[in-house]
Amino acid sequence: MTAPWARDADELLAELDVDRERGLEPDRARARLAQFGPNALQAIEARSAWKILIHQLRSVIVLLLAIGAGISFALAQVIEGAAILAVLLINTGLGFFTELRAVRSMEGLRKLGVHSAVVRRGGEVVQIDARDLVPGDLVVIEGGDVIAADLRIVEASRLQVNEAPLTGESVPVAKSEAALAASAPLAERTNMLFKGTIVTRGAGLGVVTATGHQTELGRISDLVAAVEERETPLERRLDALGRRLMWASLAFALAIAGVGVATGRDWVTMLETAIALAVATVPEGLPLVATLALARGMWRMARRNALIEQLAAVETLGSCNLILTDKTGTLTENRMTVARIVDHDGVIELERDDDQVRFERDDDELEPRDDELLSELLRDAALCTDASLGNDEDGVGDPMEVALLRAARDAGLDLAELRRARPELREEAFDPRLKMMATFHGGGDAIMVAVKGASEAVLERCDRIATRAGEQPLSGEDRQAWADRAQQLGGSGYRVLAVARKSVASVDAEPYAELGLLGLVALEDPPRPAVRAAVDALHEAGIRVVVVTGDQPTTARAIAQAVGLLDEHHPEQQVRRADAGPAELVEAAVIARTSPEQKLDLLAYYQQAGNIVAMIGDGVNDAPALQQSDIGVAMGRRGTQAAREAADVILQDDEFSTIVAAIEQGRIIFDNIRKFVVYLISCNLSEIMIVGIAALAGAPLPILPLQILFLNLVTDVFPALALGVSEGASEIMQRPPRPPAEPLLTRSRWLAVVGFAVLLTVVVLGGFWLALEVLELDDAGAVSIAFSILALAQVFHVFNLASPASGALSNEVTRNPWVWGAVALCVGLVLAGVYTPGLSDVLQVRDPGARGWMLVVAASLIPLVLGQLGRALVGWRWAQPPRRAASRSIPSTSSSTS
Questions:
Q1: DSSP label of 714
Q2: 370 vs 187: which has the higher pLDDT
Q3: Is 134 helix (H, G, I), strand (E, B) or coil?
Q4: Checking DSSP bridges between strand 356-361 and strand 346-353, what pairing results, if any?
Q5: Residue 384 in contact with residue 437, Cβ under 8 Å?
Q6: Which of 718, 691, 688 is closest to 819 using CA atoms?
Q7: Residues with Cβ within 8 Å of residue 154, at least 6 apart in sequence
Q8: Could you give the CA distance from residue 761 to residue 748 in angstroms, rounded to a whole number?
């Protein structure tokens, strides 16, 4: 129906052809069920295991390796082909089993539905399956119910509903049947009840206006279903690298084969050499090492309470440069707390340290039970509630009332004794129109009436105020002064209640006349303690944080300012409503009153601008944005099922600060991937250059095809694996985020690849020449020397991959025990290749002798020594102070240091 909240209830019932007393007739309900279908959310087809498997095989690198394995088998190189195939199978299996999950977001949304509903049909009140609800059904509503469809309220009695999962509103919303403006946003439709929300208080009657995927919850589920899966930045970068390597491999193979045949070499040998070099161009260990590095990153993050649902999400976190975060339950504790109390004597601050609460007036600590005004205010506020505390810190009932009970308990009041001393005789339920509630209590000479409610409503009915000298008249100027105090507190983001009382002779007396004001209570949903430090760390890392919430602008602004997201001098300039124009939202740090659709629009806007966006949320209204973002992050404890199943990362401890640790790990993982890609490609490029130069010069081949495959499949992989599990450089969170369009290997890293490859090539060819001319070895002996130099030089080359900002002897590579294990293993494999009968025959190598080994060791250490000198020079340049004064602003995402 079009804007049912803007229609009069009786008018709406007439249009739906339903009688208020009888409800729908059964036959009409059956006809509408056939017309509109069951009240169930639209299902999405889950991704099949077959599609997930195909996704693992779409990589260009995987395709090239598969071709290389096929060619090896075709040339009867069974060992080499089997080794390449084993790498492919391990990589595919790891990726398949870690990503084998269906699109579960819709299932999570469907779980929010209820199994039954109480309706009026044919003049009787009956319980039916919630799937059978149809437009026009009259639903009977009671406290604790989960709403099964979208309803227009027809009758309401002190009705309040928790809509936080849907709208982000941090406190229950009071409901009434009064018609509203057609332009009222979702969070302000106080005469509507929405599917999936929970009734926290009161009772009522509502007529169904929408069912199934036509409900607000259904529209969100449709948004989730419509979101297309996005390729992750790492997948894009690896595919781009794979395409480059594919063309390079074909070009090198054809060129070297052609040159060899043209210079009179045996074409079969040159074909084998060309195939070996083509496979060498593609780093066989890259997919396996990348997968294992990501898997280890998942394990590390799990230890930090960040559960990763998808491997590629690990790296995506590291490339994030913008975080959009929900407020309620994410930045805040999602638990109302009394922050300030204002009585006749002034302001009382409640300071909290762990489990201790201090009451302070004018910076002096006070004992609440010795302060008569404070004790009376907290006593009457605690009595005027429907909530209970018990042993549950979260309590049961309205969160604001639970907060009042906790404050009274923290002040040393015995809640059970209060109720025994002042038993409740009557309750005047909260009236959304009056914005007040009252309770009548016995136990004294007269009946005491305790009243609490919105400050403006209570103040209007007060004619006196409690002071230490007794009650004094409340003048018009005094009342305005109190109204100004309440407005000031509200402008600071607090929820403000006024507490009043009076004595009457009868329980039938009017509760809201001639009241005596006790004071004001300011409540807040406080920020989580570690959020500010986390925000500072994110800013230092060059990551922008924007609060996107459905809550009120003033409330969101107060929280954002408390956690350090706003300019302290001009906070109002950085807070915008979601319906503002794009130009106003560009620099906003807080965007309030956002709907699920607006969150998707914001995401698309930021992503089209080239940002890698992480979305943090916990509600149903966050699910589409979590799905659409580059990296969706949900809260694990208080987050809804829909949010958790739409997310890529789940914070098991619900701590915003955990995202900092997760981003750090993501950066470390990508840095490690870059290191072993540089390592692998520089080693493989050196092999191509060695063979290519020898072929062009008409000299004997220093490295044979089987030796190339042995190096690529054995000695390259283990050091690369060790680099993939490095603990990371210590300064990694002081670097700005990587530019979103930056390739896996930047120009500087390609120069490093070429430089390292040239070093390796020079020492191998130099050693080969010395073996032939100085040591006077035959071709086979010289090839053994060249093979051993290249193998050891590549193994030692792993130490050149440490961060230039770190020291030569103590850095993330030298501190990595896996690196030392890989070096020892590879040296052992090289010696096994030389001295093991059978294997040495296959590789066509022999013992170089003492003089030969001296040459091998000396030559293989040269790239390490020169590489360390180059790394020290780069590190020295990085360490130089900038020519201009350092700026305190967030680093640009286009910085070359990334």
A1: I
A2: 370
A3: coil
A4: antiparallel
A5: yes
A6: 718
A7: 9, 13, 20, 138, 177, 204, 205, 206, 207
A8: 20
845, with CB counted inside 10 A (0-12, 13-18, 19+), is buried
Euclidean distance between CA atoms 738 and 897, whole angstroms:
9
Indicate the helix (H) or strand (E) that contains 694.
helix 658-697
Pair 310, 98: CB distance under 8 Å: yes
Q: What's the rounded Cα separation, in Å, for the pair 572 and 570?
A: 6
Sequence-ordered list of residues with C-beta below 8 angstroms from that of 405, at least 6 positions apart, any chain: 382, 385, 387, 388, 389, 395, 415
User: Cβ neighbours of residue 557 under 8 Å, at least 6 residues apart?
Assistant: 493, 566, 571, 572, 575, 590, 592
Indicate the SS3 state at residue 65. helix
CA–chain centroid gap for 605, Å, is 19
Most confident of 70-74, 79-83, 293-297, 819-823: 819-823
**Share of residues in the chain with pLDDT > 90 (%):** 33
Say how far apart CA 771 and CA 784 lie, in whole Å: 9
Query: 234: which 2 tokens?
Result: 């790492």
Token readout for 636 is: 């694990």
HEC secondary structure over 70-115: HHHHHCCCHHHHHHHHHHHHHHHHHHHHHCCCCCCHHHHHHCCCCC
Give the residue, 259 or 702, on which the prediction is more confident: 702
The C-alpha torsion from 183 through 189 and 190 to 195, rounded to 10°, is 160
Judge contact between 37 and 43, C-beta under 8 A: no
- CA separation (Å) from 822 to 717, 722, 816, 829, 868? 9, 7, 10, 10, 20
Q: Report the alpha-carbon angle 339-342-343, nearest 5.
A: 145
* Euclidean distance between CA atoms 323 and 342, whole angstroms: 37
Range with the poorest average pLDDT among 467-481, 664-678, 708-722 = 708-722
Which one is catalytic: 326, 431, 551, 654? Answer: 326
- Distance from chain centroid for Cα 686: 41
What are the structural domains, with CATH classification, of the chain? 4-43+108-226 (2.70.150.10), 285-302+665-732+744-878 (1.20.1110.10), 316-333+528-654 (3.40.50.1000), 338-520 (3.40.1110.10)
The two beta strands, 613-617 and 631-635, are: parallel
Quick one: which of 709, 722, 714 has its CA closest to 676? 722
| pLDDT, tens digit (0-9, with 9 covering 90-100), for 135-160 | 999 999 887 677 889 999 999 887 88
Using an 8 Å Cβ cutoff, are 723 and 823 in contact? no
Cα Rg of the chain, angstroms: 36
What one-letter code names the amino acid at 68?
Answer: G
- Residue 502 sits at the vertex; the CA angle it makes with 501 and 505, to the nearest 5 degrees, is 145
Q: Which residue has the tokens 């093991």?
A: 836
Query: Pick from 211, 223, 164, 224: which is nearest to 4 by CA?
Result: 211
The CA distances from residue 846 to 624, 764, 841, 849, 859, in Å, are 64, 17, 8, 9, 18
This prediction has a pTM of 0.68
Using the predicted structure, report yes or no on whether residue 342 has a pLDDT greater than 90. yes
Q: For residue 528, what is the enclosing H or E element?
A: none
Lookup: tokens for 282: 């593609």
Per the annotation, the verdict on 354 as an active-site residue is no
The pLDDT tens digits for 254-301 are 787 787 778 777 776 676 667 656 665 666 556 666 767 777 777 778
